[in-house]
Design brief:
Layout: H1 21-26, H2 34-49, E1 53-60, E2 64-71, E3 82-87, E4 93-97, E5 100-105, H3 108-111, H4 115-125
Length: 126
């Protein structure tokens, strides 16, 4: 998605802090839901604690909400290693590794990355 020239409008950074109620109220209801944000916060905290991820950033774009993720190996890279996305128009969730779409689904829990899945996709893309 990034490589196709689509720009992300950064609204907030997702660093283990819940978004403020004002920021959540300003978002369209078809982006990440409050439950999605809580799930992503918990999942991110676990991945960061286990040192699989080095940082995350929540991005609200015009057509989708993203959780951009950098792994430990690529902590200083400009582009994220993977993204967890929810498209606003359709409500569809997607997991991408680099430029490759790994999976899409109607529910967030279906696309949450597992460590083995990310390693397989990273080696396939490389």
């Amino acid at each position: 998605m990034v490589r196709e020239g689509l720009a992300f409008a950064t609204v907030g950074v997702y660093n283990h802090d819940a978004m403020t109620k004002t920021a959540a109220a300003d978002r369209p209801s078809s982006g990440f839901t409050e439950f999605d944000l809580a799930t992503l916060k918990e999942f991110s905290a676990r991945e960061l604690t286990e040192r699989r991820w080095s940082r995350t950033q929540l991005v609200h774009g015009p057509f989708a909400d993203f959780l951009a993720v950098w792994t430990i190996e690529a902590a200083n890279a400009e582009l994220p290693d993977l993204t967890i996305t929810r498209f606003k128009r359709t409500g569809t969730y997607a997991l991408t590794v680099g430029a490759a779409v790994v999976t899409t689904a109607a529910m967030l829990y279906v696309i949450l990355p597992s460590h083995g899945r990310i390693e397989r996709e990273a080696s396939r893309v490389a």
